[in-house]
Specification:
Layout (H helix, E strand, L loop, with lengths): L3 H15 L5 E17 L2 E19 L2 E8 L4 H19 L16 E6 L6 H11 L4 E17 L4 E16 L5 E8 L4 H17 L10 E7 L1 H11 L6 H5 L6 H4 L11 E3 L19 E5 L2 E2 L6 H7 L14 E4 L9 H5 L2 E14 L4 E14 L2 E5 L4 E5 H7 L1 E4 L4 E4 L11 E4 L2 E8 L2
Parallel strand pairs: 4-6, 8-13, 12-19
Antiparallel strand pairs: 1-2, 1-5, 2-3, 5-6, 6-7, 8-20, 9-10, 9-12, 10-11, 13-14, 14-15, 14-16, 17-20, 18-19
Helix pairs in contact: 1-2
Amino acid sequence: MMSHQAQFKALAQWLHGAVIADERYTLSYDAEASDFIRFNHAKVRQAGHVQQASVTFKLIAAGRHANLSLTLSGDGEVDQQRLSDALLQLRETLTLLPEDPYLQLNEEAWQSSNVQETPLPDSAHVVEQIAQLGEGLDLVGIYAAGPIYRGFASSSGALGWHQANSFNFDWSLFHENGQAVKANYAGHTWTDDGFARRFALAREQLAFLGRPAHALAPGQYRAYLAPAALEEVIGMLCWGGFSAQSLADKTSPLQRLYDGHATLNPLVSLSEQVSGSLSPAFSGEGYPRMDLSLVAGGVARDRMIDSRSAAEYGLVANGAGWGESPSALSMDGGSLALDEVLKALGTGLYISNLWYLNFSDRTAGRITGMTRFATFWVEDGQIKAPVNTMRFDDSIFSLLGTALEQLTTERELLLSTSTYSQRQTASSLLPGALLSGLTLTL
């Protein structure tokens, strides 16, 4: 059977010879070979392997464009025929469409190849480790691992290939009272010691969930946001926060930052760190992606620009994908050691996770959401009791601005757990954040 790369190149080569003089095309390739293992009560309940490949074919002519997505069979002749049928269908479709005033194609014949072949752990070994550490516990979770492939080719001669191996174990430990600790271990390289340390922290937190809950009144409290909780906050900023389109139409939650009317804490530096990440170094539109400094020392820098925003606002596209949202977000760490977090917090909230976040005032950068899973009340640097679910409502210019005291030195790699249609390549590399105040509303 042909390799994924050979399969993609063969289709691109055929398409290059099939289009006529006034036609242009782009061809994007997506594939994976993934193990999926579901756990319940720390035992395997479902195990399977998914191998799939698809292409998205866009045809362009006379300022018009249309596209089709095709599932590939792996049989070269069958897949070539499917692509041929798609070409005929798209030619008919183009005659029915108006010209697109914001269509902007990349004419460069760029070349890109990135193959990350870090050996993945044997799934049987992973199962053994999970079963051993989770023995006697109510553990539920899903383990996903395997290579992800991305390709791009165009009539301009551009050609990109990306392969990255990764694993992601997303699990929860449930207490008999129904409370839970949620945890994650993900990356390129599995180590038994690294997993054991992450598991030990979750198990330690599980023990505290058996204590009577500490009641809190609405108000402002010192708080520590673990990386998974901070990811939810940062994730809200990615909903248009760095988007050239949103910034141009004044709907960005970071509008004040980019307009120069506000700053974040000097500790905050955020970047789109494509190099070395799981994300390909090219977009589905056919633009090479580069590392971008989005926020440096609390001040706005680059923005995410796709081809349509570039055409509409006279900007230069920098490889941003659909939605102009970061997919390889990296935040600089600070000077707070992990084993000093509780001491530095003193008295306040240790928040492991947040969920159900939304904007309460988008243009002002205000967000609201709920605490989730292992949130603890801490006194004098010691965990005392769990805290029932609470709602917060606060400004990003407080959370990452005036209220931010310090960031942890160690950062956690958080990979997207989405498997809708296919495994995703998005990731965040984030520290934990110590806050002087977080506003709880109910």
